[in-house]
Amino acid sequence: MKEKIISKASELFLKLGFKSVTMDDIAGEMCISKKTIYKYFCNKEVLIEESTSMVHKQVHEIMDTIVAKNYNAIHENFEIREMFRDMFKNNIDTSPIYQLKKHYPEIYQNILSHEIEQCTKCFRDNIEKGIQEGLYRSDLNVETYVKFYYTLIFHINENTVSESEAQKIELEALEYHTRAMATEKGVAELEKQLQRITI
């Protein structure tokens, strides 16, 4: 039951936002009493912590699956972007990350420390892979480009209220990041990915 509550709460938080969803909403959606939820979670903050932790785990599992498919480095980044777009496709209003930072800053900071570590590794692996494939320039300072990219992405998510707007800007950031690193072969691959994408 605890897992079911976390799963339903995560779905509602991502769709409607962390602030707007109440314990009553979750109980109503699940056709259980609020008392049942409080049996497992002493307050909403604890439920948010558990939910964000589960979503974080799911995201990284899906990212690992995408990486395992062995796309080239540029294609891989576009597949990961599409995964995020699909995850948040029901949310057209407030960005969940923006809401979490605004209303639950402590939980947000806790997640951020894990995210930066994992995203840094993911970005680094992608750049190194792209260099080996001849898609990114071999003279890149990898650590600097990793920092550039996650600073861009986190800034967009923290400061853009609308989820659909955040996704548009993220695509621009991905193109900007890729062009900055790409060889001629990389630019050709980037153009190919941009043509097939639908926003």
Automatic annotation (TrEMBL):
Lineage top rank: taxon: Bacteria
InterPro entries: Homeodomain-like_sf (IPR009057), HTH-type_Tx_Regulator (IPR050624), HTH_TetR (IPR001647), Tet_transcr_reg_TetR-rel_C_sf (IPR036271)
Domain HTH tetR-type: 1-59
DNA-binding region: 22-41
Pfam families tied to this protein: TetR_N (PF00440)
Gene3D superfamilies: Tetracycline Repressor, domain 2
Keywords: DNA-binding
PANTHER family: ACREF/ENVCD OPERON REPRESSOR-RELATED, ACREF_ENVCD OPERON REPRESSOR-RELATED
Protein name as it appears in the record: TetR/AcrR family transcriptional regulator
Species for this entry: Flavobacterium procerum
